Amino acid sequence: MLLTLAACGQADNQAQGEETAASGPVEIRVAWWGAEGRHEQTQAALKVCEEALGNVTTSAEFTSQGYDDRLATQFAAGDAPDIIQVTSGHVTSYGQRGGLVDIATVEEHIDTSAIAPGVLNQDAVDGKNYAVPITVNASGIMLNVTLMEQYGLERPDDENWTWDDLFDYASSVYEASDGAIWGIQQPSEDIRLLGIWARQLGHSDGLFSENGVGVDTEVISSFLEYGYDLQNTEGSAPASVSIEHQGGGVEQTMIGTGKTLMAVRPINEITALAATGSEFELLQLPVHEEGETGQTFRSMSWAITSDSQHPVEAARLLNCLQSNLDAADILQAERGLPANQEVVEHIRPTLSPEQQMMADFVAIVEENAPEAAPMAPPPGADTAEQMLRRYAEDMLFDRISPAEAAEQFTAELDQSVSDAS
Predict the structure, then answer these.
(1) Which of 97, 284, 127 minimizes the C-alpha distance to 205?
(2) Which residues pair with 283 in a beta bridge?
(3) Spatial distance between the Cα atoms of 171 and 153, rounded to a whole number of angstroms
(4) Is residue 319 within 8 Å of 336, Cβ to Cβ?
(5) Which of 217, 255, 268, 285 lies at 20 to 30 Å from 49 by C-alpha?
């Protein structure tokens, strides 16, 4: 309640400030988290933007830990920084409670033309954008090229493949390698992939609704059954093997330890996988027959808080941070692959081979992805991933059927959202 009251108390200030720029110098507070290298780069980029804007000075508020707790305290006191670094969870939480500025109210000061619509809209709350993405990430299939060549396997055609094609290919790997590796890391526990699966089947809002699960249990059951059948055809490892490779970083997973040829993973993990000594490529996700890609994005973003007394100057500073090429030369890809396509092309020569592969992958995905973002998880759905993993494991160990897993997952998630409302 404190956050809501504090944020609403700033609404009049926001409305007054968004119409007219300040007549003199202003100080803009900027908050972010990260390691020391990020702190140094961001502060240097802020200096570039101060020079570019002329009447803005900045005050940096950064931390390596405790960011969320400090931010919550500042919001509750009505003293949040002007600009904050956020993820999807922050945008949903603070955006729904009036803590962030609707980007549409300052859009004349922020040029988002170089950000793909599907990326820009990814964290929309009730149809409004409360943040501007500064990085972009997506789901893709990691292919271990070293293992593929070792066992004489052909590279799959990922430009025109379906889930059936992936199933057949993955199911052939175990026999082709004489039982040395499996085809693909078990996908049935991936909550983001479930949302993409639902979008491909015509549910544009993805997995969630404001009341919990927004799709029929048959959609969830079909996703779980796909993973179950993969296990039964040796396309993925038995549950007793897969479970041993959970809980650590990507290097400890089935794909990271060389026990499977492929895995659906966030594409930014390819850098860590490359460090394992094998060569990897990124493959596009399959689609259902004549279906949409359903691809979704995730990112880190900048947002302007409703506590800001200078939303126009904050917007101009935010714009500089996400689009100024001199600032980009400093920031590079430390936070991840930039969401601004012009920035990506500008820094491309300095990107690692893996980062360039990510840039090529994202360019294809952005071209084909839906412009509308899926619905953000509602309050109470923050444990959906753990719920799905639990029911998927019960299914893979033959304790329950895919249909039962889907029904029980839906019931528990719906109840959790109801309890939180």
Answers:
(1) 127
(2) 141
(3) 12
(4) no
(5) 268
Give the closest residue to 356 by CA, choosing from 286, 282, 251, 284: 282
Cα–Cα distances (Å) from 31 to 34, 97, 101, 199, in that order, read 10, 20, 16, 34
The larger pLDDT score, comparing residue 380 to residue 341, is at 341
| Mean pLDDT of the region 332-349 | 95
| Three-class secondary structure of residue 283 per DSSP | strand
Tell me the per-residue pLDDT of 138-172, one tens digit each, with 9 for 90 and over.
999 999 999 999 999 999 999 889 999 999 999 99
Average of per-residue pLDDT across 203-221: 93
DSSP string, 264-280: EEEGGGHHHHHTTTS-E
71: which DSSP letter? Answer: H
Q: Where are the beta strands (DSSP E) in 11-89?
A: 26-33, 56-63, 83-86
Distance CA(167)–CA(175), nearest Å, equals 14
Beta bridge partners of 100: 305
Q: Mean pLDDT, to the nearest integer, of 24-38?
A: 94
Phi-psi region of 208 (alpha: psi -120 to 50; beta: other; left: phi over 0): beta
Distance CA 159, CA 141 (A): 12
For residues 341 and 348, the answer to whether their CB atoms sit within 8 Å is no
Q: What are phi and psi of 69, to 5 degrees?
A: -65, -45
Q: Which residue bears the tokens 């800001």?
A: 308
297 pairs with which residues across the strands? 138
Task: At 203, give phi and psi (nearest 5°).
Answer: -95, 85
Estimate to the nearest angstrom the gap between the alpha carbon of 107 and the chain centroid.
23
Higher per-residue pLDDT: 403 or 123:
403
**Which residue in 327, 385, 365, 328 sits closest to 88, CA to CA?**
385
Who's near 107: CB < 8 A, 6+ residues apart? none
Q: Which stretch of DSSP H or E encloses residue 304?
A: strand 301-304
Q: Residue 8 pLDDT > 60, yes or no? A: no
195: amino acid identity, one letter: G
Query: Using CA atoms, how far apart are residues 61 and 56, in angstroms rounded to an integer?
Result: 16
* Residue 280 phi, psi (nearest 5): -125, 150
Q: Encode pLDDT of 229-260 as tens digits.
A: 999 999 999 999 998 887 778 889 999 999 99
Cβ–Cβ under 8 Å, residues 220 and 298? no
Residues near 343 by Cβ (< 8 Å), separated by ≥ 6?
114, 322, 323, 325, 328
What CA–CA distances, in Å, run from 43 to 37, 48, 62, 398?
A: 10, 9, 10, 54
pTM here is 0.88
